[in-house]
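Side project, low priority. Logging it here so it doesn't get lost.
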Amino acid sequence: MKKAILTLKLDGETKTDTLDNIADKGLILHVPSHYIGQEIPITFTCKDFLPIDTVMVLSGEMTLDIRRDSRVYGQVHFRLWNPDKEQAVSNCRVTVNGRETRSDENGYIDLFLPLEEQRTAYPVTSDIPLLEDSVYMPSGEDDVILTE
């Protein structure tokens, strides 16, 4: 987890904590006791996680459920490209992280991997020789794997 920002807004005053680790607990100090039991706006932002912007009833200890953005490392998208022919490689069988798929008519691979399989890079194999053996995440329309 990259730096996460937890923010509480109290009548024009903003209280913030920065977390460096997923195991860290956010600690907001010096909150006047008269806010206990009141609804307060809370936000959470962190790269690769879904943002939270909500209102909660303030208590002495609170839990905020955070979730990774599964699209960041789960949505694998790249294009197979033959540089010698200067064209996309269509209808080619490709295996990404052990999951088999085929490139479309424009050479694109589009595959979603479930959260428990997600990584920052995935091995890629194909029926045809590839010049690279991995796709690095996040990936997108501009990413290519070159073929021989």
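Brief comment: The chain has a mean pLDDT of 91.
Revisit when time allows.
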